[in-house]
Amino acid sequence: MTSQEPGETHTIRRDGVFDVPAAEDVARSLASARPGTQVRVDLTHVREFHDFGVAVLARALAGCPARVSVRGLRQHHRRLLRYLGVAGPPDDAANVPA
Questions:
Q1: What is the CATH number of domain 9-97?
Q2: Do the strands 38-49 and 9-18 form a parallel or antiparallel pair, or are they unpaired?
Q3: Which InterPro entries does the annotation name (predicted)?
């Protein structure tokens, strides 16, 4: 992710398989986000989710300083995020701890 100013929006798109390496890549991008920025994680083109990848995503969302929204998660993975302490609907600010 490039350097951002507060109020800017950045989109992270993934497709294919969302496994641990893919989730770690997204986590690195989220970790570099600045407070006050909006980050959209677009997973609508992911064809296969691995639960461990979603667990890595949950940790990244919980620690991200930016406002993050996530699109494209299936019901099972939204529940998994809630179980892991990430509250809010997936298309809303998903990095608010429960």
A1: 3.30.750.24
A2: parallel
A3: MlaB-like_STAS, STAS_dom_sf
